[in-house]
C-alpha cells in the first residue's frame, strides 16, 4: 500500500491499482476504461493485454470543500493508469478535446499533477484542415510536477513508467469531454511505443499533417495558483480565485498563450 497523503494533500492510499479513501474523505467509485473501449485508438488494434487499463475517480473532495468546489465550478479527479504495453504501445488514456467556452472561440484548459509514476502528456492542437494538427507537445512529468493542458489542445496521457501512474487533475465541471475526433483518427497524432528498449513516437498516418513532437518541461505558474511543493488539491482550496482560468480562460488568454512557447 502506497501512502499518497503527503503528495496529494488528501487521506488516501494506492492499493495495487485501486485508490483507498480514509479519514473524512468520502469514497468514490471509479469509472473503468477497458481494452475493449480503447480498440479504436490503439497502435495495434488487435493486440491482447490486460482488460482494465485505467480507473477514473471523479469529483473527489473533503466534506468541508464540497460546497466550495461546486461554487467555483471546478472538479478534482484522480486517475490510475496501469503500467505495461498493448502491442508494444504504452498504456494510455483514450484522448479527448474540451469544448469551446460558450460565446468564445477558446476551448477549456485543464491542469494535471503526477502523484506517482512517470507520465508523458501528448498534447495536440487541431489545424485549419480537417484531420491535421499544427502543434504537438510532449511533457514528461514526475511526482509533484504540474502540467497545464492549454486551451484548444487535445491530450492523451501515457504511462511511460514501470509502476502505476497516479495523477490528479482540476478542470471546469461545466462540460463533458469530446472523444470523437480521437476515435475518428484512431488515436493521437503520435503513438508512444517501445522499440529496442527506447521510447519512440510513431506517427499516426490517419492524420493529414502533423509536425514533429516538441519535448518541453513542466512549468511553474504561481500566478495561476500552481506552486511547486504544494499539492494541487491544496493549491485550489487555498487560492480558488487563481483557478478561474479553468472556467474563464479568455480572461487569462495572454498568460495561457505563453505556455510552452
Any overview of this molecule?
This protein has helices at residues 5-8, 35-38, 63-72, 180-184, 232-238, 253-257, and strands spanning 2-3, 12-15, 18-21, 31-34, 52-57, 74-81, 85-86, 89-90, 110-116, 119-126, 133-141, 146-149, 153-159, 165-172, 190-195, 198-203, 214-216. The protein has one domain (2-255): Jelly Rolls (Sandwich). With 261 residues, it is mainly beta.
The span between the termini is 39 Å
Please give the largest β-sheet.
Answer: 6 strands, antiparallel
Strand order of the largest sheet: 4-5-6-14-9-12
Assign the CATH class.
Mainly Beta
What's the quaternary structure here? single chain
Taking pLDDT < 50 over at least 5 consecutive residues as the criterion, the unreliable ranges are none
Helix segment count? 6
The CATH architecture is Sandwich
Q: On the 0-100 scale, what is the average pLDDT?
A: 94
What is the third-level CATH name, the topology?
Jelly Rolls
How much of the sequence is in beta strands? Answer: 25-35%
Give the % helix. Answer: 10-25%
Q: What is the 3D form?
A: globular
Helix-strand pattern: EHEEEHEHEEEEEEEEEHEEEHH
Determine the CATH superfamily. Answer: Jelly Rolls
What is the domain total for the residues? 1
Count all strands and give the number.
17
**SS-based class:** mainly beta
Amino acid at each position: 500500500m502506497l501512502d499518497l497523503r503527503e503528495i496529494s494533500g488528501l487521506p488516501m492510499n494506492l492499493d495495487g491499482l485501486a485508490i483507498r479513501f480514509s479519514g473524512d474523505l468520502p469514497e468514490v467509485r471509479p469509472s473503468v476504461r477497458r481494452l475493449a473501449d480503447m480498440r479504436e485508438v490503439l497502435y495495434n488494434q488487435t493486440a491482447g493485454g490486460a482488460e482494465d487499463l485505467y480507473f477514473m475517480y471523479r469529483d473527489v473532495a473533503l466534506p468541508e470543500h464540497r460546497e466550495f468546489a461546486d461554487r467555483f465550478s471546478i472538479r478534482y479527479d484522480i486517475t490510475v493508469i496501469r503500467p505495461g504495453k498493448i502491442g508494444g504501445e504504452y498504456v494510455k488514456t483514450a484522448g479527448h478535446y474540451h469544448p469551446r467556452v460558450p460565446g468564445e472561440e477558446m476551448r477549456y484548459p485543464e491542469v494535471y499533477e503526477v502523484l506517482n509514476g512517470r507520465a508523458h502528456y501528448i498534447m495536440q492542437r487541431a489545424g485549419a484542415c480537417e484531420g491535421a494538427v499544427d502543434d504537438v507537445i510532449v511533457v514528461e512529468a514526475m511526482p509533484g510536477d504540474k502540467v497545464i493542458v492549454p486551451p484548444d489542445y487535445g491530450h492523451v496521457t501515457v504511462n511511460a513508467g514501470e509502476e502505476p501512474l497516479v495523477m490528479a487533475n482540476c478542470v471546469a465541471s461545466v462540460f463533458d469531454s469530446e472523444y470523437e475526433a480521437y476515435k475518428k483518427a484512431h488515436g493521437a497524432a503520435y503513438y508512444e511505443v517501445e522499440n529496442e528498449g527506447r521510447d519512440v513516437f510513431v506517427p499516426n498516418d490517419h492524420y493529414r499533417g502533423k509536425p514533429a513532437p516538441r519535448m518541453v518541461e513542466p512549468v511553474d505558474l504561481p500566478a495561476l495558483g500552481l506552486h511547486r511543493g504544494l499539492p494541487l488539491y491544496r493549491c485550489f482550496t487555498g487560492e480558488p480565485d487563481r483557478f478561474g482560468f479553468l472556467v474563464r480562460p479568455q480572461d487569462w488568454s495572454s498568460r495561457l498563450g505563453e505556455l510552452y512557447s
